[in-house]
Amino acid sequence: MAQFTEAFYTNGVLKPKAELGLHEAQRVRLIVEPLDDSSDRGDRPAALRRLLAGIEGMQFFSRGRLPSRDDLHDRPERTELAVDERR
Questions:
Q1: Where exactly are the structural domains of the chain?
Q2: What is the mean pLDDT of residues 17-29?
Q3: b vs e for 39-62, b when ≥16 Cβ sit within 10 Å of the residue's Cβ?
């Protein structure tokens, strides 16, 4: 069962904020995502500027023509429909 918690890294040791309920010497898999504690979390305008700058660098839209409905869906040809209807 996966668990998510924060931890502090001190003197080469990760110390979880919450009890993990693991057995002594139990092997686990870690994915470490550093949390930026140094940023001012109360500075909403600066956070919004960073968000908008990040979005500006993303590509959400195609520069080419958009696909038609027929491009998106496999549709049988009209002749195939006529053959199927005769059966």
A1: 1-36
A2: 92
A3: eeeeeeeeeeeeeeeeeeeeeeee
